[in-house]
Design a protein that fits this description.
single chain, alpha+beta, Fumarylacetoacetate hydrolase, domain 2, twelve-stranded mixed β-sheet, 7 helices
Length: 275
Amino acid sequence: MKLYSTRQGPVVESEDAFFRISEADLDTLLMREDLASFLESTIAAATSSDRPVPGELLPPIGKQEVWAAGVTYFRSRDARMEESKSTGGGDFYDRVYSAERPELFFKATPHRVVGPYQAVAIRSDAKWSVPEPELTLFITPAGHIGGYTVGNDMSSRDIEGENPLYLPQAKVYDRSCALGPCILLANGPLPKSTEIHMEIRRGSRREFEGSTTLEAIKRELPLLADFLYRDNSFPHGCFLLTGTGIVPPDSFSLQPGDEIRITIPPIGTLVNQVG
């Protein structure tokens, strides 16, 4: 079952049929610990709907904060060490990769998040910007993983590489995060074989393509959620980006007009342009 946010309100996809939910807004739904079972009972009497079209889709977020985990894939560890090598900060990332405690950082407030087919941004003062395709957890107010969506953690690699303390500036700015196209409601963990695929197109040319699977992530996803909720409360729930294992070559940097397509097959494809 999938939950979409649209300009006309929440829409549920179940067994290739679509239903508009008029009884509650997205925030009210996402605060429910019994969301999947509630929606199953609700769609029996719900109005059928067409598949949401691109211009109708919104990011599937209400009042939730967005957080992120870093250095959860070996490929990300290598990239972070390389970009920080000249400043001597690379050792930090190796130590984080090996430590029990994960790197967790604040990523976005809802107004900084864009949805499918909306424009993500690159910082005006950055010279090396990349997308980071990530499986994203929706975590309920009580700390349970309630679903999954596709996330794009836009990053300014030159700013972060200059000094690890610049991480918030490299990561947190307007339109620095994209989520969508929907939330896949969880019936349990996704298989380790689940693929994450990213394609970046520049005009008619494929500029970059890469894939990984959840098998390559070092951290268990419930452990990331557990660390995030330690001494922290999220009354509306939250979203947690779980790190990237796909890193374009050092010679690549995003340009305005580039199209980023991130696909996680059980969830769908998140499409954004750089604006």
